[in-house]
Amino acid sequence: MSEYEFTDSQNAIFAKLSVSLRRFGIQLGVFATLLIFFGLAFAIRGRYEGADAYTSVAGGVGIIFVGALTLALCFKLLKPVEEFRLIVNTEKNDIDWLITGLDKLAWAHRTLRLILVMLLLSAALLAYRVLT
Amino acid sequence: MNTANSQFDDSDLKMSEYEFTDDQTKHIEEIHAILLHISLLMFGIGSVLMFLGHNQPGIAGWITIIGAGLFLTLGVVYFHPLVGFRRVETTAGDDIHYMMIAMDNLRTAFSTATWIVLTMNGIVLVMIVMLL
To answer: On the CB side of B3, how many CA atoms lie within 13 Å of its CA?
Structure first.
């Protein structure tokens, strides 16, 4: 067990970090919900008005899937908030809370990496279609 | 690095002589690597979207270019805390000092990302209205 205790000014950084992270997580949750609605509108219009360059059922399902992944990311991002708060509110084990918080942050960002890889592949496919 | 406008008192940080253990450094290296991947993926998506935006006429093209700009900004924002993490891993001494710089930059990154996601929410809302 590490006995290092963060100073007040350092604790202030962690307090602000936990607030920023929570706000970011909540905004991502709103974004994910909007993305799911957008995917639904995309798919419904593609289904009833016929698929064109901008609407299709498959595209809509894809957007809903990315929205669901983003929603999962939102919940994962909110988890390390608690560890950063514990650094501020408790004494001792500060370094352990920090490492656990960073671990959870890394876990959340693995999901973000997956979403971004999917987005990059989709964008690259679109770019390939434009070129050929 | 965000040292000039840091939210914490620099003087008391330099007093701390705590050195992260090898195991703790591995966890820090992990989040460092994931954040680097995310930053590079953001740059990649931003570049492809920029290309797509230039080849798309009308408002859809402009929305794509704005989206590209947001992804490129997120790439820069996510790259910023990496310097602090790198210093923690590679230098001996002042580990807490560099960790706090990384945490402060991470806080700035999440704050900026929150505004960017807020803008993206607006874009998705416009796209939903356009579809309905």
So the answer is: 9
